[in-house]
Amino acid sequence: MADLARTARLDVLVEGYVRPPNVAGTVSLIRDQDRVVIVDPGMVADREQILGPLRALGVRPEDVTDIVLSHHHLDHNLNVALFPVVPVHDFQSVIEGDVFTRRPAEGTQLTPSIRLLATPGHTPQDITTLVGTPDDVVALTHLWWTGEGPAEDPYCLDRQELRDNRDRCLGLATLVVPGHGPAFRPQPSTPR
């Protein structure tokens, strides 16, 4: 498994779904050391679906220290503005307010338990957030929409790249939080 500390707490605020015409992206909260990280604050039926669970966990929007975007589709970033101006991490940069700092995501360590990985597949700009919790190494990723795949992602431009990055994540994680569905434990039947 990944060389991560195992001190982070992960809470899925919104379990995403795709039920055309309705779509919601999975929204997650990670807390570790002095960092409060929101991953993929995207499309939901009502913003209260993000804010309500945060309140229930004792977290206010102004407590958030970082935002991570798995990729730049609106269903994963539409609600960034719910939070104060904080570093927003993507595949090539950190953006804070009007300051753009170029840096690759690969290997970026937000804390000893939170690491970003470049994992192109769903889009060429995908990243995975790898989280070490006391129980699991968790991959928050859009390499899978759900535990069932789809095996052939309709947005994927490079099938081999998707397959390679799925294999990489499955080699690191004991639990996967996909872009549009419930968390799953990798199985031999998990699409590669």
Q: Kindly report the average pLDDT value.
A: 96
Instruction: Please outline the major beta sheet.
Output: 7 strands, mixed
Task: Give the tally of structural domains.
Answer: 1
Percent range for helical residues?
10-25%
In N-to-C order, the SSE pattern is EEEEEHEEEEEEEEHE
Query: The CATH topology is what?
Result: Metallo-beta-lactamase, Chain A
Task: Give the overall form.
Answer: globular
Structural class: alpha+beta
CATH superfamily membership: Ribonuclease Z/Hydroxyacylglutathione hydrolase-like
CATH class: Alpha Beta
CATH architecture: 4-Layer Sandwich
Main sheet: strand order? 1-4-5-6-7-8-9
**What is the strand content?**
25-35%
Overall number of strands: 14
What is the number of helical segments per DSSP (H or I, 4+ residues)?
2
The rounded Rg comes to 15 Å
Note the gap between the termini: 18 Å
Oligomeric form: single chain
List the helices and strands and how they pair.
Layout: E1 9-14, E2 17-19, E3 22-24, E4 27-32, E5 35-39, H1 48-56, E6 66-68, E7 88-89, E8 93-96, E9 99-102, E10 109-111, E11 114-118, E12 127-132, E13 137-140, H2 159-172, E14 175-177
Parallel strand pairs: 5-6, 6-7, 13-14
Antiparallel strand pairs: 1-4, 2-3, 4-5, 7-8, 8-9, 10-11, 11-12, 12-13
